[in-house]
Amino acid sequence: METEQSKVLQVKDLHVKVKTKNSEMSLVQNVNFELKRGSVLGLVGESGCGKTVTSMSILQLLNRKTSTIEGSITLQGRELNGLGDKDMRNIRGKDIAFIMQNPMNAFTPVFTIGHQFVETIRSHTNCHKKQAIELAIEAMNSVNLPDPAKLLKSYPFQLSGGMLQRVMIAIAACTHPAVIIADEPTTALDVKNQKTVLHHLDAIRSKYGSAILLISHDLGVISEMADDVAVMQNGRIVEKADVFQLFDEPQHEYTKKLLQARPLLHVNETVI
Ligand SMILES: Nc1ncnc2c1ncn2[C@@H]1O[C@H](COP(=O)(O)OP(=O)(O)OP(=O)(O)O)[C@@H](O)[C@H]1O
């Protein structure tokens, strides 16, 4: 049965505007959705429809001087919209993990992976440095990263995109976040790394009950991972349904077009 506790994150009447020279422009309007414990909501829509603006609003990472966020974003009952930077810094990384498309941007180039990993663990837990290193090595092992002790001494540029993506997931695994926002987590990866990353994300979901907001324009990834799907067009959610219903019986014209546009591999085509 669905209870209030099972709704980990609720977004109500989200409206995001950005200030232009002489007026304001709406980027996202009337967006409503919720994430349930241990489940995956896929957010799909073509480039520029407002998926990233939505996730940045949840994380309160939009520039406060140039944008306004109206509506309510509650994480386990706590209102995030308008929360101060210090409180949000505590929430980001611990309660909400963010896995982004270009993992290189998530790391500071001048610090080793180990320094950044251990600092993140220590800032959100009571671990000593030695315990944090042990936790980091264990988490890196669990996402099949080879020779974690050596990787901890490496700098971000020395790792591939797929490896950095897995380091981000390992960090998320250490903090047991209530919510993971994964914004195009596999777009920059080859097929093998895509599968690995999705597998590990799914493992965190099932082990810790994290709710995942999975943003992707890859409908194959969405159909494999999501329980429910929200379709966005021009800053609005035009259709929301469980994954089977959405793929089998799309209601909105835009959803139908999106589904028709996806590349299909016919069974009698030979894959070399
Ligand atoms: N800071 C900003 N100032 C002005 N416009 C912005 C700003 N950030 C985003 N936009 C605009 O808001 C719209 C939504 O952008 P957003 O990045 O959320 O799209 P998206 O759906 O995530 O696209 P993609 O799949 O390409 O990442 C776009 O038209 C974008 O140009």
Task: Describe what this molecule looks like in 3D.
The protein has 272 residues and is α/β, with parallel strands linked by helices. The chain has a single domain (7-260), classed as P-loop containing nucleotide triphosphate hydrolases (Rossmann fold, 3-Layer(aba) Sandwich). 37% of the residues lie in helices and 25% in strands. The strands form two sheets. It has a six-stranded mixed sheet with strand order 6-7-8-3-9-10, with helices on both faces. The protein has a four-stranded antiparallel sheet with strand order 2-1-4-5, covered by helices on one side. It is globular, with a radius of gyration of 19 Å. Bound molecules: adenosine-5'-triphosphate (ATP). The site of adenosine-5'-triphosphate (ATP) has 11 residues, from helix 1. Belongs to the ABC transporter superfamily. It is found in: Cell membrane. Keywords: ATP-binding, Cell inner membrane, Cell membrane, Ion transport, Membrane, Nickel, Nickel transport, Nucleotide-binding, Translocase, Transport.
